[in-house]
Amino acid sequence: MHTSNTLLACMGVMGNQDLSENSVVFMASPLAHQTGFLYGFMLPLMLGGRTVLQDIWEPGAAAQVIHDEGVTFTMGSTPFLSDLSRTEALDQHPPKDLELFVCAGAPIPRVLAESAAVRLDARIAAGWGMSENGMVTVTLPNDPPEKIFGTDGCAWEGHEVRVIDEARKQLQPGQAGDLQTRGAANFIGYLKRPEAYAVDNDGWFDTGDIATIDEDGYIRITSRAKDIIIRGGENVPVVEIEELLYRHEAVQDAAVVAMPDERLGERGCAFVSLMEGKSFTFEDMLFHFEQKQLTKNYWPERLEIVEEFPRTPSGKIQKFKLREIAQNFNVAGH
Predict the structure, then answer these.
(1) Distance between CA 33 and CA 31 in Å, rounded?
(2) pLDDT cut 70: percent of the chain above it
(3) Which of 122, 129, 154, 140 minimizes the C-alpha distance to 12?
(4) 8 A C-beta contact, residue 301 and residue 334
(5) 169: left (phi over 0), alpha (psi -120 to 50) or beta
(6) Would you say 211 and 228 are in contact if contact means Cβ atoms under 8 Å apart?
(7) Among residues 282, 250, 252, which one has the least CA distance to residue 269?
(8) Distance between CA atoms of residues 39 and 9, nearest Å
(9) pTM, whole model, 2 decimals?
(10) Position 24 pLDDT exceeds 80
(11) Residue 14 reports pLDDT greater than 80
(12) How far is CA 298 from the centre of its chain?
């Protein structure tokens, strides 16, 4: 039930005309990871199509393989989309048959999704899900740009989502709160950890994500509950800040986490990796936020430039490691 419903969601994204025995799937996530297993192994098996695997992620090699093998579909987290769309190898090996890149696992910066759609000459679909339930929400083929590039999709058939407050009351459209989901693909528990099974009597699962939901049922993940920065009693919208950092021409990847502060409780620390040959100072960051009219209370008080981010095998930035590093920081060191 879990696998078939999750893959049917993917088929709904593609449209009936796109997924068939003629599909060629490219997968760079490990097959031991849910993304790799469901979309790199099970999907082509169910279709009777072909799959192309990449053991170690290298965007230049990926561009050539996608070109040479006539890849039509791929799915991966935001770093895969970012790296692929920015590699110079695309100039020699444009993806001539690629129809769709489903990007999931972390909120996609809108500027990245828009530029990737042009650079790859393919549809970009945003999706959200977890290991506990597979793909839960996704944007659809005929969605307008504001949905595709500005949301994480709507619940596909067999799943529901809602946003609640601390009293577990459902919130109105546009209000940020705890994201819950229930449906056919929800898991049934953690091995030897029954106390961690956060599903209520009505079947709603606490995802640990903070999100908003619009009037059309499309969600937008704003942060993980544990990623929230509470600065002087005010919640800081981490995803909004990261989105703006991605819009700076020097920034390759960005992540914002909390660092301790005696007076305010927490302050923001921005970790950034840079485009080749570019520079980015703390003053550059503040000027950029001022130009983008970001509320000053949300500005990170420290900037750390890193060569590489700690990542999971599927490419997600491991924010818990950044938070551990930031525990030893103070505002002065930027």
Answers:
(1) 5
(2) 92
(3) 140
(4) yes
(5) beta
(6) no
(7) 282
(8) 11
(9) 0.74
(10) yes
(11) no
(12) 21
* CB neighbours of residue 212 within 10 Å: 19
Report the distance separating Cα 189 and Cα 198, nearest Å: 9
Q: What is the Cα–Cα distance from 184 to 133, expressed in whole angstroms?
A: 8
Q: Which domains does the chain have, with CATH numbers?
A: 1-225 (3.40.50.12780), 228-326 (3.30.300.30)
- Is the confidence at residue 108, as pLDDT, over 90? no
Instruction: Enter the tokens of residue 317.
Output: 């930035």
The predicted model gives 37-66 an average pLDDT of 93
SS (H, E, C) 266-331: EEEEEEEEECCCCCCCHHHHHHHHHHCCCCHHHCCCEEEECCCCCECCCCCECHHHHHHHHCCCCC
Residue 103: enclosing H or E segment and its boundaries? strand 100-104
Q: For residue 269, what are the CA distances in angstroms to 1, 233, 295, 317?
A: 42, 17, 16, 15
Task: Of 111, 110, 61, 122, give the one whose Cα is nearest residue 90.
Answer: 61
Distances (CA, A) of 263 to 233, 303, 323: 11, 20, 19
Hey, CA dihedral for 108, 114, 119, 124, is it positive or negative? positive
CA distances to 69, 86, 140, 211, 293 from 109, rounded to whole Å, are 29, 14, 18, 15, 17
The residue whose two tokens read 């619940």 is 155
pLDDT of residue 330: 67
Encode pLDDT of 73-99 as tens digits. 999 888 889 889 999 999 999 999 999
CB crowding 182-203: b at 16 or more within 10 Å, else e:
bbebbeeeeeeeeeeeebeeee
Indicate the helix (H) or strand (E) that contains 124. strand 123-130
Closest CA to 183 of 146, 154, 211: 154
* Residue given tokens 């078939």 in the structure block: 4
209: Cβ contacts below 8 Å, ≥ 6 apart: 128, 178, 179, 221, 223, 224, 225
Number of helical H runs and strand E runs in the chain? 11, 16
Helix axes 110-120, 238-246, angle to 10 degrees: 40
